[in-house]
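#struct-pred
JK: can someone run the complex with magnesium ion? inputs below
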Amino acid sequence: MTAAASEMPAIETRNLTKVYPGFFRDQNVAALQGLNLSVKRGEIFGLLGPNGSGKTTTIKLLLGLINPTAGQSSVLGKPTGDQVTRRLIGYLPEETYLYRFLNARQTLDFYARLFNMNRAQRTRAIDYYLDFVGLDPAVRRRRLKTYSKGQARRVGLAQALLNDPELVILDEPTSGLDPLGTMEMKNLIKELKRAGKTVLLSSHQLADVEDVCDRVCILYRGKLEVEGTVDSLLDVKDVFRVEARNVPPALQAEVVAMLEKGSGVSEVEPGVQRSRLEDLFKRLVLEKRAAERAQSKPAGTAK
Ligand SMILES: Nc1ncnc2c1ncn2[C@@H]1O[C@H](COP(=O)(O)OP(=O)(O)OP(=O)(O)O)[C@@H](O)[C@H]1O
Ligand SMILES: [Mg+2]
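RT: done, structure tokens with the ligand placed:
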């Protein structure tokens, strides 16, 4: 990759808009409204938002699975839908759609053939990615219809990674996973970053997003409401925080007393935590809903 190419954003959208047509015009759904977004190469970017806020719509637009009503997007420097670029993207859909009567190895073999891998390449890639996603070897030759949700999710991820994509798009990667599976998935995502890949993910698991994402945005009714690095969104700028182990109580009291004597210093609270993504998210969604309620018609009229 040339220097110029590596500086080019992995994903860029300009005024990206999607209106799903309804049977009548007033049934149209403005799923995404004028989205401007730029995801850098090599970063993990989180798309957040309540149900129906446009996350999956954004992902489908970026994959070229649906066409925008207005605006443009580019992926890896090429307009969305470019055939060559498509081969550089790995995609884990919101629901894992796999052939129920194949086992994990047969499933991956099927996709590996689509990528024109020869037999030796296929065997190597299948073993490598099934190990990478941590699929229990005991189930690898069992039909997928017998798999638990978490096992199927892992096969879905292995399939998304099979062609060693530059950009990995994961729609709700932790959905259906138990806490341990979730932790493993987070580690896998970090591993992808270490391997130089760009990851775009959507999620409702805010604590997980906070752990893995470099930057996030929050969508609300198809509009981008907040965007930034996790640190910039969550760091409380005017708060000074020190952490230390084994500080004797007397010294703790001394430090607190010293701070309290400082001019203009207020609210000295030992052990104060930074805010969490969950707090930010809830505050935004609750504010928006309250504003909508305040604007809506009086009770008794149709919504
Ligand atoms: N094919 C479609 N036809 C009509 N409306 C649609 C279609 N697909 C999605 N929508 C609507 O567009 C809006 C955004 O949906 P989208 O699936 O992008 O949300 P999401 O943020 O992924 O939600 P979730 O968190 O529930 O997965 C919703 O109001 C949804 O009902
Ligand atoms: Mg969705």
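RT: quick notes.
Residues 55-56, 94, 171 surround magnesium ion (ligand 2) (CB under 6 Å).
Residues 3-234 form a domain with the Rossmann fold fold (CATH 3.40.50.300).
JK: thanks, will look after standup
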